[in-house]
Design a protein that fits this description.
Blueprint: E1 12-17, H1 27-35, E2 39-44, E3 53-56, E4 65-66, E5 72-76, E6 78-81, H2 97-110, E7 114-117, H3 119-127, E8 131-132, E9 149-157, H4 159-162, E10 174-180, E11 184-186, E12 191-196, E13 204-207, E14 211-214, H5 230-238, H6 243-277
Parallel strand pairs: 1-2, 1-6, 3-5, 6-7, 7-14
Antiparallel strand pairs: 4-5, 8-11, 9-10, 9-12, 12-13, 13-14
Helix pairs in contact: 1-6
């Protein structure tokens, strides 16, 4: 069997964002995956260009597959769903979110390695039978009790997480970028909880063997907080967050965050390649 490092076939990864504007699909994580000879196919939900259906394929140029009444499916070796600001029920304009849920169901059915991030993590949790909090609007002090987290935060691996391939070689606790009001609050027993934090009980999950959700953002560096606008910073201060402490945490944790996030990206590439060896 050929090892994953020596495979030359550039497999396609479907990357779903929710709106235009990203300079690079899935941030620095996309760069790291491309370094592992994976090809990113970036689609944007709000631009109506998501595949109708997806199926597993380790080919770099799979044939489009007829799926009868449902139209045409497209083959991928992996799926990444980015974060975003929309409410899960679509009431604030995220009309494409139900279709992303359908794609998640298809990824689960066909065992497509999946990394669902932040909003994607919450969508995945709902698809597998979990529940998600419903905070929205301006940042308030009460959000802290509902699992809200901002900036670089400490995330601890559970026992299951310490033995999971996605976190191989990563020492707990992790320092990961966070930017969320809502969080996953409950999961059925069939879903494995891989990480947690003081405020968020379900920071990472796995369903089956290759379907992952992350509440945190390995694709974003800690210095992203410097790009937050004044309104957001003022909301955080008014809600009781120590802005200067957040800046200091970002500076001190940057090296560890980058190293751990890069390792997670390499691990996901390894999961994709090993899935191909089963085909």
């Amino acid at each position: 069997m050929v090892g994953w490092e020596s495979q030359t076939n550039s497999m396609r990864i479907l990357v779903i964002s929710h709106q235009p504007g990203a300079n690079q699909p899935v941030g620095r994580l996309g760069k790291w995956l491309e370094q592992k000879e994976l090809t990113l196919d970036h689609r944007i939900g709000s631009e109506k260009n998501l595949p109708k259906r997806i199926y597993y394929s380790s080919s770099d140029s799979p044939d489009r597959m007829s799926v009868g009444k449902n139209g045409v499916g497209e083959g991928y070796a992996g799926l990444i769903i980015n974060g975003g600001q929309w409410r899960l029920d679509g009431s604030d304009g995220g009309w494409w979110l139900p279709h992303i849920r359908r794609l998640l169901h298809q990824a689960i059915y066909d065992d497509i390695p999946t990394l669902a991030i932040c909003l994607g993590h919450q969508l995945l949790a709902e698809v597998v039978g979990g529940t998600v909090s419903d905070a929205h609007g301006p940042i308030t002090a009460s959000d802290k009790d509902k699992g809200a987290e901002y900036g670089l935060c400490s995330v601890r691996l559970t026992e299951a997480g310490e033995y999971d391939m996605l976190f191989a070689g990563i020492t707990s606790p992790m320092m990961m970028y966070q930017n969320h009001q809502n969080s996953v609050t409950e999961l059925p027993d069939k879903v494995e909880v891989l990480a947690k934090s003081d405020r968020t009980p379900i920071e990472a999950l796995r369903y089956g063997s290759v379907i992952y959700g992350l509440q945190f953002h390995p694709e974003v560096a800690g210095d992203a907080i410097y790009k937050w606008n004044d309104d957001k910073v003022n909301q955080l201060k008014s809600a009781g967050y120590d802005w200067q402490a957040m800046v200091k945490q970002s500076q001190q944790g940057d090296s560890l965050n980058t190293m751990q996030s890069h390792q997670l990206g390499d691990n996901f590439a390894r999961i994709i390649k090993r899935r191909a060896e089963r085909t």
